[in-house]
Each structure stands twice: as structure tokens, then as C-alpha cells.
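The following record pairs a protein chain with its ligand, calcium ion.
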Amino acid sequence: MSRVLVIEDEPQIVRALVINLRARKYQVDAAHDGATALQLAAAHHPDVVLLDLGLPDMDGVEVIKGLRGWTRVPIIVLSARHTSDEKVEALDAGADDYVTKPFGMDELLARLRAAIRRAEPTSGGEDDVVVETAGFTVDLAAKRVNRGGEDVRLTPTEWHLLEVLVRNTGRLVSQKQLLQEVWGPSYEKETNYLRVYMAQLRRKLEADPSHPKHFITEPGMGYRFER
Ligand code: CA
């Protein structure tokens, strides 16, 4: 049974989440402010955290930083905030995913299941992962991509970008994180690099590069690889 920590100060949302999660056999703790949330997380070690960014006592980003000091628990941010700066700030602080209010319960539950699944330890080392999609297969250990029985030629930069996205399958990776990991810390504002290289990956791997199914853009925020 998975344990969920809900951090939210709006009573109606807390009630809806608690009812829906308990109905699906999750154990649920609810905290209405950041200080209570950090205490509950330390006491109960949840499997996933749902976090509202606007809390009465502290900014949700501070809660993320507090949790990331000691745990890799998946954190899904719930927020009505619409500026991408705040979403990006939450992602860069260590949030794993983002759901915008008002959210559909089905979508939220799907994201929750995906976050828990990703957090489960995989058998064997992380380096022997083969990721299959309907159109192509990525072998992270061999550093090869196969499409329709043929190896796809990728440049080292294309491969590095693909690798970061595939290792975070289903998760929104911020532009800053991608630029830092692939190009280095001094490139974190060069979002045009991402557009160019993402277009190349789509051209080489997507069935229809203008309607990508695997390399998804989250405008102003980052990219998500979907299987
Ligand atoms: Ca709030």
C-alpha cells in the first residue's frame, strides 16, 4: 500500500483528494501548512507527495527544498499559478511533476501512479535499461537507438539529450536542467539550443515530427519523454 502526503490549505481540495485516494486504497496524511508537512514527511516517509505551492506559512518551493535535503520521494506540485517562472522554480528545486488547478481527478491519479512507479527500484543496475516505444528502442547501456531494425545515427549531443529525457521517462524536465546536464552550467539560458536539438531528435525518431508523440514540449517550462 502506498502512502500519500497531501500538502494543501484549501479544505475542499483536501477533502476531495482524501476521499478519492482512500477509495483507491492509498494511505493518506494531510497537512495544511508547510511546517506540519515537513514533520509528517519525516515521521511517516510517504511514497509520494502532492504539494500546493501557495501555503499559509511558507512558499511551497521551501517545502520542496526541505524535503530534498533528505529524501528523493516523488513530489507532484498542484498549483493554480500560471506563470511558468514559478513552475520552473518548483521543478528546479526538485519537484518531479506539475498538475495545474483545477485538475481532473483521473489525470492526477494517473500522474500519481506514474510517479510511484518511477520511484520503485528497478531490478539490476540502472545502466542496463532498454526503453521501447512503438516506433524505436533506446538501449542506454549500449548507447544505441534502433528504429525499424536499423541503428539511428545520433551525434553525441543528441544522444546526451535523449539519454537525460529517457532516464526521466514521463517526467517533466526543465529547460535549465537539460541545458545544464547536456551543455553545462554556463549554457542555462540557451533555450534555442534545445529547440534545435529537439527538432533533430524528432526528425530522426518521431513518425510525424510535427506532431510528436514521444518528445513533448511543455511550453516555457521544459520537455517530457513519453513512451
Ligand atoms: Ca493554497
